[in-house]
Amino acid sequence: MSDPFFQPPSGTDLPRYAGVPSFMRLPYLPPDHPRRGEVEIGIFGLPWDGATSNRPGARHGPRALRDASTMIRERNRATGQEPFRAARIADLGDVAMSPVDQDEALGNAQAFIRGVLGQGIRPFMVGGDHLCTLTVLRELRAARGEPFGLVLLDSHTDLYPPYFGGQTLTHGNPFRQGIEEGCLDPARCVMVGMRGTSYNNADFQYGWDKGVRIVPIEECMELGWTAVMEIARAVVGDGPTYVSFDIDFVDPAYAPGTGTPEVGGPTSFDAIRCVRSLRGLDIIGADLVEVSPPFDTGGITAWLGASVMFELLCAMQK
Amino acid sequence: MSDPFFQPPSGTDLPRYAGVPSFMRLPYLPPDHPRRGEVEIGIFGLPWDGATSNRPGARHGPRALRDASTMIRERNRATGQEPFRAARIADLGDVAMSPVDQDEALGNAQAFIRGVLGQGIRPFMVGGDHLCTLTVLRELRAARGEPFGLVLLDSHTDLYPPYFGGQTLTHGNPFRQGIEEGCLDPARCVMVGMRGTSYNNADFQYGWDKGVRIVPIEECMELGWTAVMEIARAVVGDGPTYVSFDIDFVDPAYAPGTGTPEVGGPTSFDAIRCVRSLRGLDIIGADLVEVSPPFDTGGITAWLGASVMFELLCAMQK
Amino acid sequence: MSDPFFQPPSGTDLPRYAGVPSFMRLPYLPPDHPRRGEVEIGIFGLPWDGATSNRPGARHGPRALRDASTMIRERNRATGQEPFRAARIADLGDVAMSPVDQDEALGNAQAFIRGVLGQGIRPFMVGGDHLCTLTVLRELRAARGEPFGLVLLDSHTDLYPPYFGGQTLTHGNPFRQGIEEGCLDPARCVMVGMRGTSYNNADFQYGWDKGVRIVPIEECMELGWTAVMEIARAVVGDGPTYVSFDIDFVDPAYAPGTGTPEVGGPTSFDAIRCVRSLRGLDIIGADLVEVSPPFDTGGITAWLGASVMFELLCAMQK
Amino acid sequence: MSDPFFQPPSGTDLPRYAGVPSFMRLPYLPPDHPRRGEVEIGIFGLPWDGATSNRPGARHGPRALRDASTMIRERNRATGQEPFRAARIADLGDVAMSPVDQDEALGNAQAFIRGVLGQGIRPFMVGGDHLCTLTVLRELRAARGEPFGLVLLDSHTDLYPPYFGGQTLTHGNPFRQGIEEGCLDPARCVMVGMRGTSYNNADFQYGWDKGVRIVPIEECMELGWTAVMEIARAVVGDGPTYVSFDIDFVDPAYAPGTGTPEVGGPTSFDAIRCVRSLRGLDIIGADLVEVSPPFDTGGITAWLGASVMFELLCAMQK
Amino acid sequence: MSDPFFQPPSGTDLPRYAGVPSFMRLPYLPPDHPRRGEVEIGIFGLPWDGATSNRPGARHGPRALRDASTMIRERNRATGQEPFRAARIADLGDVAMSPVDQDEALGNAQAFIRGVLGQGIRPFMVGGDHLCTLTVLRELRAARGEPFGLVLLDSHTDLYPPYFGGQTLTHGNPFRQGIEEGCLDPARCVMVGMRGTSYNNADFQYGWDKGVRIVPIEECMELGWTAVMEIARAVVGDGPTYVSFDIDFVDPAYAPGTGTPEVGGPTSFDAIRCVRSLRGLDIIGADLVEVSPPFDTGGITAWLGASVMFELLCAMQK
Amino acid sequence: MSDPFFQPPSGTDLPRYAGVPSFMRLPYLPPDHPRRGEVEIGIFGLPWDGATSNRPGARHGPRALRDASTMIRERNRATGQEPFRAARIADLGDVAMSPVDQDEALGNAQAFIRGVLGQGIRPFMVGGDHLCTLTVLRELRAARGEPFGLVLLDSHTDLYPPYFGGQTLTHGNPFRQGIEEGCLDPARCVMVGMRGTSYNNADFQYGWDKGVRIVPIEECMELGWTAVMEIARAVVGDGPTYVSFDIDFVDPAYAPGTGTPEVGGPTSFDAIRCVRSLRGLDIIGADLVEVSPPFDTGGITAWLGASVMFELLCAMQK
User: Fold this and answer.
1) Chains adjacent to E (≥3 CB pairs closer than 8 angstroms)
2) CA E129 to CA D100: how far, in whole Å?
3) Distances in Å between the alpha carbon of D71 and those of B94, B298, C218, C262, D19?
4) Which pLDDT score, from 0 to 100, does residue F140 have?
5) Largest Cα–Cα distance of chain A, in whole Å?
6) D132-150 pLDDT tens trace
7) Is there a cis peptide before residue E193, judged by omega within 30 degrees of 0?
8) Counting CB atoms within 10 angstroms of each CB, which of A215, D3, E115, F81 has the fewest?
9) What is the DSSP string of D256-283?
């Protein structure tokens, strides 16, 4: 039976626009909260965009997603799931990350995540730019002792070689870095939705050389999303898997509020369906990144992001 | 032959952004106008959002839709119809509805609609929030003496049980109330496009128990819109039918300006096609509701709403 | 010495855009929190706009003001005050107010405020529309047993006679109602900044008849704000006084996000100066109302509102 | 006693956002309306920006100003005037002006205005760009048989020599053209508020040579607005005078929605006060031009424009 | 081997938001530049909307598209093409077109294009409204001595009869005019994507009478885009062909920033795919028109437009 | 006599919205341009916000300011100056600054500025965040061999102690750092316009201890801007002086597009007047920083910024 402490208030009791906005209106449990140890899935924000090569603003993502997520109700109409009853989920707060010091910022994030993992909590990270993902990958690797698989829904591979004359830590490199550092098992990595222009083909070539399965958007549209997600499931199998959702996976008409949009992407229906199809995988952690509120219009990107978060939480249900 | 009095000025004579904006640039005939009795389809606004549980602003809908609808030209490119020639259609004005007194507001609306029906005019209501629909249902029921069918295009069933500790008159309840009050024949009700999160399943269960046919978005996408609309037509048959179009039926990328958007919805092409497929039904009244201009971006929701209104007027052609 | 529990985190430790946003980043103490009894000034939201005659959206005010207020730092540059050290201030949360049932909404608000006053906390209410103020006036009256004075900074008197055929409870009536119900001592009421168009002069006449001092904007501009505020201080004297700040007091160039703006108002500098000049009065409660985020542009209204809140908290320092 | 036919509905009866929006909610009397002959002041739109050298969009001005003007109430709080009781004022509609043919557009406008003047109606024109003013000047000149004075509130003189290799009919030339064509008596012309950058000084020099009194913004700020408007009154005296208000007179913080803003302008309070000080002049016609809705933010420019229109109508009271 | 002079700087060297924005960050070669003669494809702007019947603003299109196009990288992820290596492409600047004198404006544009063609440069025109296309058609016809084919991707045929009482030169007429003037071979013209409302059927009828192949959106959706583009290729064959892309071809959810949007259009993926399928045709010139930045939201229309431009440049590769 | 090469095209020849946008439409002279050595005042962009503690986006400043500055005409209406005739001014382009590596970014900026100074060009820097100023201060110091004076127009002193646990290089520290590094002579530094909240008083205290003259906004308003600027001139005297203008000096109603706005600031008229009063000082360099386009509304901040830039160029006239 579900614990009332971990249930969000209903919008028919407290209107959805009311109250201090935590993620999904769940209880906010900072590090020293006595009940934090009971949490099964912990949502936290990494409000940081210090690795962004183009338009910034993802540092404001967690705030906007907390706000938008208060519109989420308890039940998944499509699947019948009630994720807040199925697991004890909470808002663990944001990490203090210096906007002007990458080392300190990443270090603080990793220390926080280490604490989360140390309490046996499955991490759900809300970015922040995509380099934030690397902090989760590193700590998961450290905690588990071996590499794991990846499902990436994104318009970019983020496998690029160094930027700006040698920078290996930008939001275009986290998965290359994740492979180089041994966090990810490239043979169990699948990347879906790639499109747009590129500097060159070095990222794809790197991925192919390592054995990563890349599914560009043209292949997605040709095969259909059901088939694509079957491929994705086959690649990762039933081993431990991390899921990363970059909001620029979705077409900019649906998600204008992001730093590096690429036209020609999937609809929100397709995006939701992709996430839903991940259910049953052994998801050891997940994230939603690259929502940049200053470039959003009418809050539709944050609302889509909050909806994706809900579906990810459903997919993580055991 | 069509009456020149009821023809809107052409945009090649008077530019579309010019002039006092009535719905579709049609003649504005307030209650005391001598030619009001000639009207066959009367468009009127219920500028009221006093039953809105979430983001308000639908009270500004009729104003924005009048403005946007001046962009509509005379002819339906796809069907060849010219609805303003096929029937005498007019703008009947807005009802004075108190924003702070639900009883008075609904009462005024019903009195106005009673007058419209009394003149033999088919009603086309422009909301306002979805509870406004109930005022039309009630008066149609009173005028006709028996229940009728419903086609609802929406992301919600609006069959929810009472809100906020007992409120039966919110924008989440109109069709439950319409069934309870005997306006609607549940066996001839079909609801298309449901999705998103829900408080629980009580609305679906209520509908199923009563015999309402509910087609969630997943079923729509699987069957295809042509098949779905065939189902819809079969449910209502050739008996008298009301058509209600909630703008949140369409995906928020296409219709951000609404109070309770749900991601993962149809495109504007699909939405238009759904409406177009209703032609030939015995449509005794229709509405377009829940356009909330303060949440619109660039006026695209109002423009889509005006386009849907035009298609509904074509579908109502006898 | 100030209690660390009641200090907001510094923006140089946790960036100001990070974290769950409570008012001024102060601790959030819901009704059952063990330390609530220690609070001296309690900030709470009434997210409700059910009495709004024109453009809605003030129900979203508390959320937007919490967000914007995280930009506030600890110290008042102009006065040297550090209000969070001078008093124990906290965020008490929002009241659950039904958007569709005025009686229930006002009743819930009054019950909440009764609790706040019962704990000896000075109330700082964040609206919501201006009728929300009436709930505070009523409970302060009940708790204190006698009427008190008022400083109103607003572009309207809110002394209007009933609206919409008899409604006495709209956002245009709270102070008339407050006088009628014996909450306010009209001889100790001063209203500053009135301007724009009016239905008639009934509101001014009512105020004059009762002895309220009204200072229209033309008089403000002629006398200068220093002189005006001396008048205001003289009217209320050193008796107990409530301060109400309607954001539409300020010119719409500075505060576009409100329901009923009036052009020709003061600048933000003048507005801040007015608030600052209230220091030393016996302020028994205060509010900031009528911020309507859907009509805001770039968040400047919310940011101004948060700045005004901070100055009000400084003015309330004993 | 005032004629009920010419009274706008009160916002306490019909909410201000409801109804088909005519200027100030006044009766809409197209050219063939039987009661048009009774009108004393006729407001009409020239939805045209075909002479705009920079950012377009003023063609959408009349629509936006009709919408915003429904927020205006009956009474001028500052002066006690009730202009709709003092004179029979109506909305005469918009002129059909081709956006792609300047000759036809100006010709249509002049023919319309000729009709208005022929019915003895004082014209109040709503632009459109500033060249629209020339059509009024020309027809007033033709109808009266002699030149008249001018009060211009603007950030530009609009006395520029031809643009783009010889164009004398752009929105930078109307008053030069008005002087050249003998519509205006330059010795009775005063221009207030000039500022910003200029191509050269040819416009000032032309004005000075003709005897026009130009008051740049620096002089306004130094003398104060009261003194400046006394100068303005002295220049035009009690002879017949036209008043033209370009919304870019006001600072872009107050009026962003215009084609050629200039920073460093007056506040809305000062602008309103300038208009108010014109009362008692023999105003034979007036206009409000250059509101460009596509560049407006949050509708504040349209709202300011509507407020200025109301003050102009009060100033025109005899 | 590609000439370094004609390569844009990489975003990993100079961030994409940095630098003076030329189209695609290519070298800017005004008419007198010594290397202009080497250019193979020349991109230039016609910043003019003087033929716009509805919402203006396309005059700001080239500026916005230069800005957005700096987000484009070197390589087409889908096709592997690197267009800036495959041909020498440059930004030739904008033509000075009077916004108030159609004759002068069109004359200047034609003179400029004549110069471009005289240097053997393939023209890529960036509008501006759709009448701008006529200037390219005329000069191509003059230079080549015979009519050519057309692929039009648009929601309108732009084959309308005269507007506003006889205007043949509006943005609704360029292709009718192009056929009438012998620029286009109607039997080799194909128009894809038509939809929405129309004044009448005169445009379709004109096209059919002349032998133009028109594919309305319903036919597109039924046949699928692959089949439609095969039809398009068959119509134009391997003769010389002009390609015109009106941004209102795409649904307004994807491209809100345009003057005359029509709902129910293709997605950005479909639009990109259509362009891509044109590769191999003998494309003698191309354009992207009708981006109207004042009506854009969040820059998504400009970004889509820049992406379409890139695909067109790829399709033009020989 | 002025050199035609250095004159911007007139808006009456080439409309102001046309053409590739360089600063003020001046010639763009990258480092290797043969005529760069003739430049007297060089405007360049530092598109970088890597030291921003709060809302980012100033990296997009130079792009937006180039665009807005094309609205500037040749002549200063108020002073009669024609700065582009008085000196050879050019756009020197932007510096490539890594958004993810502060050391590299600052190093590149300094190397670029060193080159500019080496060519004897007076630098006009366009930010970017306020730390960008430090790069100019450092290179000016190195080139001149001794400290110089400063006029700062800002709402903050930017004299704060280290942020985020020891960061001395943030946008809150440049002038403290400039003093510590011996670039600035504190006795010849004046800071005008300080206001808002602060973490503590350490910045003021530091300035006072060093002998910096700080004029908070309250003092400005009390003394009047003329008197304040006389104080400022007296502090710097006729020695070499750097002028830095942070756009957040102006009230957010006038300049919403900035990262850390503070309400209660001067109007645009006052701000312009302050800049104008600097004429005659020995200005060795200047900047305009902290314009953040993602937070701008309607481009008014960029337009104000461009206007301030023009006035600064006039003030720099010798």
Assistant:
1) A, B, D, F
2) 12
3) 16, 22, 21, 10, 12
4) 98
5) 55
6) 999 999 999 999 999 999 9
7) no
8) D3
9) --SSS--SS---HHHHHHHHHTTTTSEE
Residue C163's pLDDT is 74
DSSP-derived 3-state class of residue E276:
helix
- Tens digits of per-residue pLDDT, E67-104? 999 999 999 999 999 999 999 999 999 999 999 999 99
Alpha-carbon distance F30 to nearest alpha carbon in chain A (angstroms): 20
Helix (H) or strand (E) holding D105: helix D102-118
CB of D163 less than 8 A from some CB of E: yes
Task: Pick out the residues of the known binding site of B.
Answer: 130, 154, 156, 158, 246, 248
- The alpha-carbon radius of gyration of chain A (Å, integer) is 18
Q: Which residue ranges of E make up the annotated binding site?
A: 130, 154, 156, 158, 246, 248
Domain assignments of chain E as residue spans, ordered by start:
15-315
Which residues of B fall within a CB distance of 8 Å from D97?
Answer: 15, 18
Q: How many CB atoms lie within 10 A of CB D256?
A: 24
Q: How many CB pairs below 8 Å do chains C and D form together?
A: 93
Chain A residues with beta carbon closer than 8 angstroms to that of C43: none
Two tokens, residue E303: 């970004």
F205 touches chain C (CB under 8 A): no
Element of type H or E holding F302: helix F300-315
pLDDT at E161: 86
What distance in Å separates the CA atoms of residue F27 and residue F93, rounded to the nearest whole number? 10
Q: Is C185 flagged in the annotation as binding?
A: no
Candidates C217, C210, C205, C216; CA nearest to C189 is C210
Q: What is the spatial distance between Cα D276 and Cα A231, in angstroms, rounded to a whole number?
A: 73
A157 band by pLDDT with thresholds 50, 70 and 90: very high
A115 SS3 class: helix
- Please say if the pLDDT value at position E58 is more than 60: yes
Q: CA of A87: how far to CAs of A41, A83, A84, A140, D46, in Å?
A: 7, 6, 6, 20, 64
- Checking if the pLDDT of F161 tops 90, the result is no
| C-alpha–C-alpha distance, residues B136 and F14, integer Å | 58
- A213-216 and A282-289 strand pairing: unpaired
B264 touches chain A (CB under 8 A): yes
Length of chain A, in residues: 318
Cβ separation of E54 and B268 shorter than 8 Å? no
Which residues, listed in sequence order, are joined to residue F75 by a DSSP beta bridge?
A: D198
Sign of the Cα pseudo-torsion (B28, B29, B35, B40, in order):
positive
Residue of chain F minimizing CA distance to E19: F94
Instruction: Sort out which chain D residues have CB atoms less than 8 A from E295's CB and list them.
Output: 294
Asked if A touches B (at least 3 Cβ pairs < 8 angstroms), the answer reads: yes
Q: Which CATH class is domain C15-315?
A: alpha beta
Summarize pLDDT for F230-265 with one digit per residue, the tens: 999 999 999 999 999 999 999 999 999 999 999 999
d(CA C135, CA C138): 5
Q: Which residue has the tokens 């010495």?
A: C1
Determine the Cα–Cα distance for residues E87 and C184; give it in Å rounded to an integer: 80
Q: Which chains touch F (3 or more CB pairs under 8 A)?
A: A, C, D, E
Nearest to C186 by CA among C208, C154, C157: C208
Q: Is D91 annotated as a binding residue?
A: no
Q: Do C80 and F201 touch (CB under 8 A)?
A: yes
Partner residue facing C300 (CB), from F199, F256, F267: F256
pLDDT at D40: 98
> Which H or E run contains A103?
helix A102-118
Q: Which of B60, B23, B74 shows the shortest CA–CA distance to B44?
A: B23
**Do the chains contact at A56 and F56, CB–CB below 8 Å?**
yes
E54 CB near a chain A CB, below 8 Å? no
ipTM of the complex: 0.96
- CA torsion sign for C274, C279, C282, C286 is positive
Q: Stretch A153-170: mean pLDDT, rounded?
A: 88
